Amino acid sequence: MVEVTKTFKERLIDFTMYCRERQFVLGPQETQDAFVIAENGYVLERKLFQYSLKAIFCKRKEHFDRFDEMFDRFWSRFYEEKLEQRKKQIKLIKNEPDTATVIFLGAKFNVPKKEKKIEAKQTKGANESIRLRMTDFSKVDVSDKKYLEELALELFHQMSMRFKRRLENSNKGKVNIRRTIRQSIGKGGLPLDLAFKKKRKEKRKVVFILDISGSMDTYSYYLLRYVMILKKYFKSLEFFTFSTKLTHVTPLLRQNNEQEVLKQISVNVNSWSSGTKIGESLTEFLSSYGNRFLSQKHVVVVLSDGLETGSVTVLKEAVKTIRRKCKTLVWLNPLKGMKNYQPIQKGIINVMPHLDAFESAHNLDSLLKLEKLLMDV
Amino acid sequence: MNKEINAIIKDFYNNDYILNEELATSLFLLKNLEKPLLLEGNPGVGKTMLAKTLASHLGTNLIRLQCYEGLDVSTSIYEWNYQKQLLHIKLFESEKDKKALENQIFSMDYVLQRPLLQSIRADKPVVLLIDEIDRADEEFEAYLLELLSDFQISIPELGTIKATTKPFVILTSNRTRELSDALRRRCLYHWVDFPSKAKEIDIIAKKLPNIDQVLATQVVTFIHNLRKSSLHKPPGIAESLDWAKTLLLMNVDNITDEIVHNTIGSVLKHKDDVDFVRNKTVQEFLFPID
């Protein structure tokens, strides 16, 4: 056992907070385990300390992939110090002369002011998360892109967990007499364990139809990424893109590697950044996929700015038919997030009466509001 | 690296399991912090085998609980032995002290111990493998929480049963669904990835000492290139070993198109994947990597 100074403990707490700000789910127990590791002397060996903290702090693969880089960024200065200097900082505890040592790490561990400044810049706090959630996709900084995706991943994960729990709670039914009697045979005919009729779980089936035309350019990449993240949590999600032509993207999402998925989509979706024919594309969706992906269990979400260049009558008819065949039809329009936006475009005016909801989709916060709509299924 | 970790790596190697330092550190913490270890990774990367090897490394028993949808308390923790209880009631029907009779039939003698209860009541610490936890329902995860954090199980009629010895718990998941944060927070975590090319050659050479080095390299190169392709089910280490064994049995010393055509079934388990490989030449998968 070794004794760890207060300053070092503070640094370890700083690292815990640094991880927490990057969406690691860490509580007091993890911090306590980190102290145990430090007190066991693992801190003296970089790899041992790194791998130990990794096992304790990481709770899922996404954390696991990012941890090494974060550890390097935070602890590199500490481990750059010469080994001998560090050994000097270690003294044996008198009571346990054979095995125990004391680490006087505090004084040497004060981070120079310059580094503090750099770290402060790199650290994204709770306010930062709120800022990112509210940032319009068209104004997202390149440096924020990665953090925004990480944040989205975490928030969608939490959303899917809430879904599952509520679904489980609503699935208890009446007593199944037949099965209860069958089960009681082995217990001398006494119905000790009651069997319940389980309500058939209603699986949420969601169809996303994303507009990737030129007018949606600033939003379509982010919306595509978020549908990809959602797909991880909603197995029955179907995904289509359109501009002048409709493409069924779901089969391309089967890959494990996200970069590969994006590559495949860019190869297979030819109509990227071209004109907008919403009506024709939705009609194609109805004729080619309507039978498979439209029922009273389906929620259809159209992500489009509604700037139609084709026939408005075709669009109106298509939307009307889709609404009739599905449970809920939601239209998400990124332009709705703009100040003073009014739905006065011809396309939008004509489809509005047939929609169950017309919401904005310009930032992460607005996408998270989808939860309420999907939960009502 | 720490001496104890090196000893773990060495001992696992002697038991035909090649560990890296990172995973060895997680096992070291599993032993020292007495926390469960959650292993996630693709099927066939050696998660279950790790638990088996840990049991032989520690010289103890392995208790395995294979999870499935619908797994409940009566199959995983305990169940009252109803027949025995009924028999006891019949035998002592004339007993006047009904309270004593009730106490008798609700004692440990009338409990059928299932894997989780067995693991905490064992004479010496055992390795408890909770395999493919992602297949079980979320309700079952909730049952596990008490065991994983406090190593105790509550039986309403008996009260709380504390562990006589703490088991070394390993949970595995193929990530077919997300596990709850509550469960994850009680565990150490390690993502078991596919091994590097050099490590996989070592694994094959270790498991199949008679294999030619050139053939082993070809098998691993082929498999690694397959994993980079867009397959429904990328092959794991188990598939590499199966294929190497098959080729060894067939006395193959060089992989050809015909050999691939005839034996690819031991590597790929999806029709589309098999068709994908059969429509390509072997050379496309044998170009050097890394």
Describe what you observe in this structure.
The complex is a heterodimer of chains A (about 375) and B (about 290). By secondary structure, chain A is an alpha/beta fold. Chain A has three domains: about 120 residues, no CATH class; about 30 residues, no CATH class; about 170 residues, Rossmann fold (3-Layer(aba) Sandwich). Chain A is about 50% helix and about 10% strand. Chain A has 16 helices and nine strands. Chain A has a six-stranded mixed sheet, sandwiched between helices. Chain A has a three-stranded mixed sheet with strand order 1-3-2. In chain A, a hairpin with a 3-residue loop joins β5 and β6. Chain A starts with a strand and ends with a helix. By secondary structure, chain B is an alpha/beta fold. Chain B has three domains: about 140 residues, Rossmann fold; about 35 residues, no CATH class; about 80 residues. Helix content of chain B is about 50%, strand content about 15%. Chain B has 14 helices and nine strands. In chain B, strands 2-5-8-1-9 form a five-stranded parallel sheet. In chain B, strands 3-4 form a two-stranded antiparallel ribbon. In chain B, strands 6-7 form a two-stranded antiparallel sheet. In chain B, β6 and β7 form a beta hairpin. The two termini of chain B are about 25 Å apart. The model of chain B has no long low-confidence stretch (mean pLDDT about 90). The interface between A and B is large, with 41 and 33 residues.
